[in-house]
Amino acid sequence: MRTVLLLTAFAIAAGPAMAQTAVGEDTASGLHWHVAAPEGASWSLDCRFRPVTYAATAYEQARWANRTRLRGTGPRAGRLPGDNGRCTLTKTGGAGPVGLALVRGDEVTSAGAARTGETAYAGLL
Asked: Within a domain: residue 6?
C-alpha cells in the first residue's frame, strides 16, 4: 500500500514535468505567427504554449519555457517552439489597426484590434 501511495504521489508531482517537449536548439519550428500593422502601429504580443525544454547554452541544455512576450512596431513574424499556442495581441499606440494570425499547416486563425488598448486573441490548440 505504501509503495502505491508513493508511486501515485510521484506521478502527480512529475506529471507536468514529464509533459514537456524537448526541442533542443530548434526553438522556431512550430506554429507560425504574424503580426500585421500596415501603418506602423505599436503592439505587444504575449503567446503561451505547451511547455518545452530547449538548449539555451552549451552548459544549460534543458531550460524550460511556456511563454514568449514581444513588443514592436509595424509588421513582424516568427514561430513558436511547438505546434500549439494561444496569443494575445494588444495595440499600444500609433496609427492604424494591428492584426494577428496563427498558422499550422492549413489551419489559420486570426484576430485584430483597431483602438489603442484593444486586445485580440487567437489560438490553435
From this structure: no
